[in-house]
Design goal:
Number of helices: 4
Helix content: 25-40%
CATH superfamily: Dimeric alpha+beta barrel
Number of strands: 5
Order of helices and strands: EHHEEHHEE
Protein name: L-rhamnose mutarotase
InterPro entries: Carb_Metab_Mutarotase, Dimeric_a/b-barrel, Rham/fucose_mutarotase
GO molecular function, one term: racemase and epimerase activity, acting on carbohydrates and derivatives
CATH architecture: 2-Layer Sandwich
Radius of gyration: 14 Å
Pfam families: rhaM (PF05336)
Distance between the termini: 18 Å
Amino acid sequence: MKRYCLALDLKDDSQLIAEYEHWHKAENSWPEVRKSILDADILDMQIYRTGNRLFMIMETSDNFESKKKEEMDALNPKVQEWEQLMWLFQQPLPWAKEGEKWVIMKQIFKL
């Protein structure tokens, strides 16, 4: 099993943040997006927020490949629609590469 930790910022607007959280409640999420996550060998995904900073934890199978996930997402119209909707609320981290949304975090401590 692999673990990935990623970060992203939301636009610093309380109404947009509330709407972003609305879309991430189980009853409002899109089943096609959930299926695409599971189909990519992602076993568990959690998102946490503090202020406008998001932190995602992904647990994946050993077979998970981020490049393959990107390719699958690019071919999935519903995932692309979701990503366009989410981009209304999101903004890249100041140090993100051009076109990069979620930035992989470096582990610096483990007990």
